[in-house]
Amino acid sequence: MPNYLQFLIVFLGGGLGSCSRYVVSKVISSQLESIFPWGTFTVNIIGCFLIGIFIGMIQRFQFHPNLTVLLVTGFCGGFTTFSSFSYENYLLLKNSEYLLGLLYTFMSLCWGFAATFLAIFLIRRF
């Protein structure tokens, strides 16, 4: 049986995350005109850092489980953009931008992992 309160919490967090993604992506894309998808890249790295902060804080301070549902599942799930990342890679490859597609994938993975691990480390350290 689903927990309806948690469903609503995910709904709220996801909506806030999606709206935040839209704003951040639009601002970045308007400032950096390029074939490289800077908006999505930036959102994904910020999202990786945020999920690290949220998980680190939740583990360290043992917050209520609903906060995990709100921040990690809801907000970060709505904020990060793996489907956009996938589609933008498709477009780069379709346009024969092979090196840029490889660079985008590599940078997203490396910086994403680094941001998550850095955030968890910082929360645990301080």
Automatic annotation (TrEMBL):
Keyword flag Transport: yes
Membrane topology category: Multi-pass membrane protein
Location within or outside the cell: Cell inner membrane; Cell membrane
Entry superkingdom: Bacteria
Catalytic reactions of this protein: fluoride(in) = fluoride(out)
Function: Fluoride-specific ion channel. Important for reducing fluoride concentration in the cell, thus reducing its toxicity.
Name the record gives this protein: Fluoride-specific ion channel FluC
Record organism: Rippkaea orientalis (strain PCC 8801 / RF-1) (Cyanothece sp. (strain PCC 8801))
Gene: fluC
